[in-house]
Design a protein that fits this description.
The chain is mainly α and 99 residues long. The chain has helices at 8-38, 47-54, 58-66, 83-93; strands at 44-45, 73-75, 78-82. It starts with 7 loop residues before the first helix and ends in a 6-residue tail after the last helix.
Length: 99
């Protein structure tokens, strides 16, 4: 392992620059999503995002796709999911407790 040392002022400047980059990336992402929404397209989730939203593993998500239990869009070799489709699927499969 190599240890790199730097002055605290240089480290502070570096962290400030990284913060600016992160803020820029967030703004760019928001602008991109607004552009999609303006064209009638909705932002889509990745496999990781959809799995987290559903509280399942990526393998379970893959199984759900194979069994046609979840709607998805294939772009190249990547699967994407619309938030509304996932919410609708959860709502349709929710079993109400009888009182």
């Amino acid at each position: 392992m190599e240890v790199i040392t730097m002055e605290s002022a240089a480290f502070k400047k570096l962290t400030e620059q990284l913060t600016e980059i992160v803020q820029y990336a967030r703004l760019a992402k928001m602008a991109f999503q607004e552009n999609l929404t303006g064209k009638g397209l909705k932002p889509m989730l990745t496999n990781d995002d959809a799995a987290k939203m559903l509280g399942v593993s990526k393998r379970t998500l893959q199984r759900m796709r194979s069994e046609n239990r979840i709607d998805f869009i294939k772009i190249g070799n990547q699967c994407r999911y619309q938030v509304e489709a996932i919410e609708r699927m959860v709502e349709e499969r929710t079993i109400a407790k009888e009182t």
